[in-house]
Design a protein that fits this description.
It contains 17 helices and ten strands. By secondary structure, the chain is of the alpha+beta class. The longest helix is centred in the middle third of the chain and has 41 residues, at 212-252. The protein is 64% helix and 15% strand.
Length: 492
């Protein structure tokens, strides 16, 4: 059996079940209304009427089964292969539940009309319970049908409503609970109250008639039919809510691409769509944080998110590392642009990796140079040692690149670190004499043996273990500065 045939049979079977359950519920009502109480038992339960009723139920079952198959078959032709529906197919699918309710109600209406026409001589004892049974049975069939076919119809509605605002209008939670109360409690109780009241007044029911059996039948029907109706109603509420709960657990695990299908236009549908909007907002925020972090560093991005957009600056101790390429202009003249970009990307990849390893921050890239800071925005106890260790590590790695030459300068001291710019456009930056000193040391380091130079201020602030790795190289007046700077270079 193909999947189309399997789903068609499954859907039709659920509709038939809904119809037969409604028949059972209606019979439980018709027995007391059409029995001794109305004085029409002989006519109502005659052999001919019993045969007619059985035939109508059998024919109704066949009509519901065939009508259900015809209702869903056109939709399954595109749904099972996984094709996207065209506008007409989408409209047909969205009306699937409405057509099935109309089919069940119409089957009851026609059956009731035939029953009344064939018993015109029965008078009120036939017409009243039949009319009541048709109204009750048709409503019960449509309501139960909506509940039992959910598992088959829901994936179809999801596929039809994908990339579309059209979802099925469904009863809200309160309406479902009220419907459950009406079918399982209010209506049976109303029948019992009506029997007692009408008999007490002598209307239609003789005051001497016994209604205990009728009350017992109605009560048992309410209990037996109320249980599956309650289960189906609760599942129609709990299952979609359970999907939202499961999706929330997925989001808690970091899977922010989680999506919940929205099928119905009700409180449940609004909950599902609200969850999807929330997750979309979280995903957008995560994307912006990732993008922001790539530009200013993860630590700065996290602090900006935690503190809002302020990140107002202050003066504090920090260490600065400046690294600059040698001969980048000549490199650009002798190589293709893509090759130059590849060289720069490899160069900066090594720089970023080394700085991150020592808890530093790449503050900015300046063409073929980079400025890294240590100790801000997150304070550390040994920023100078981290900057010096990063410089030594970089020298060892960058010397493995055959086409790259460089100069690294390290300094330390008090700097301003914070946002600079207008209200709507900030740049996190560092300003101060150590920044300028590190840049000048990087220029001078391009001609040194190890390609690394640092100031005495950086060495003095480092821990003893790191200081032992650096040796004094004398003093010099750096370009653009008035005072001499004590210079150190690595010993190994």
């Amino acid at each position: 059996m193909s999947r189309v045939s399997k789903l068609t049979v499954q859907y039709s079977s659920w509709l038939v079940l809904a119809y037969l359950l409604s028949v059972a519920a209606a019979v439980a009502i018709l027995i007391p209304l059409g029995g001794e109480a109305l004085g029409g038992a002989a006519a109502y339960f005659s052999t001919a009427n019993v045969i007619i009723s059985v035939v109508l139920v059998v024919v109704g079952t066949i009509v519901v089964a065939v009508g259900g198959a015809l209702n869903i078959a056109p939709t399954l032709r595109w749904f099972v292969p996984g094709h996207a529906p065209d506008p007409r197919q989408r409209r047909v699918a969205m009306k699937l539940l409405g057509r099935q309710s109309a089919l069940l109600a119409a089957t009851w209406f026609v059956s009731g009309a035939i029953s009344v026409l064939m018993n015109l001589d029965g008078g009120v004892s036939i017409a009243v319970p039949t009319l009541f049974g048709v109204v009750f049975g048709g409503s019960a069939a449509a309501g139960i049908g909506l509940l039992v076919t959910q598992r088959v119809v829901r994936p179809i509605i999801v596929a039809a409503s994908h990339s579309s605002e059209g979802v099925v209008t469904a009863p809200g939670v309160l309406a479902r609970l009220v419907l459950l109360w009406v079918l399982c409690s209010a209506l049976p109780s109303a029948v019992i109250v009506a029997l007692v009241f009408v008999r007490s007044k002598g209307w239609l029911i003789p005051q001497t008639a016994s209604i205990e059996g009728a009350v017992l039948v109605v009560s048992l029907a309410a209990v037996l039919l109320g249980l599956p109706t309650m289960i189906l109603t609760s599942r129609s509420i709990s299952e979609p809510i359970g999907e939202v709960v499961d999706a929330m657990a997925e989001v808690e695990q970091g899977r922010i691409d989680t999506y919940v299908d929205v099928v119905e236009r009700s409180e449940i549908g609004r909950l599902q769509s609200g969850f999807n909007r929330m997750v979309a907002g979280l995903a957008e925020r995560e994307r912006l944080r990732d993008l922001f972090g790539r530009h200013v560093g993860v630590d700065v991005a996290r602090r900006a998110i935690d503190e809002g957009a302020s990140l107002t600056g202050d003066v504090q101790e920090a260490a600065i590392l400046f690294i600059d390429l040698v001969g980048s202009t000549a490199l650009a003249q002798s190589r293709a642009p893509q090759e130059v970009a590849d060289v720069l990307n490899e160069f900066f990849r090594i720089v970023v990796s080394a700085v991150d390893e020592h808890q530093g921050l790449i503050n900015k890239f300046q063409g073929d140079a980079a400025l890294a800071v240590f100790g801000v925005p997150l304070r550390t106890t040994d920023a100078a040692a981290a900057a010096l260790a990063t410089a030594r590590s970089l020298a060892g790695q960058l010397q493995q690149l055959p086409t790259v030459d460089f100069g690294i300068g390290v300094s330390a001291g008090r700097i301003f670190a914070g946002n600079i710019g207008a209200e709507n456009r900030y740049e996190y930056t560092v300003i101060g004499d150590p920044v300028n000193e590190a840049a000048r040391l990087a220029d001078l380091a391009k001609t040194s043996e190890r390609r690394i130079l640092c100031s005495a201020a950086a060495v003095d602030r480092a821990d003893p273990a790191e200081r032992e790795r650096w040796a004094a190289q004398g003093t010099t007046v750096l370009r653009g500065r008035a005072e001499a700077t004590s210079i150190f270079a690595p010993t190994v």
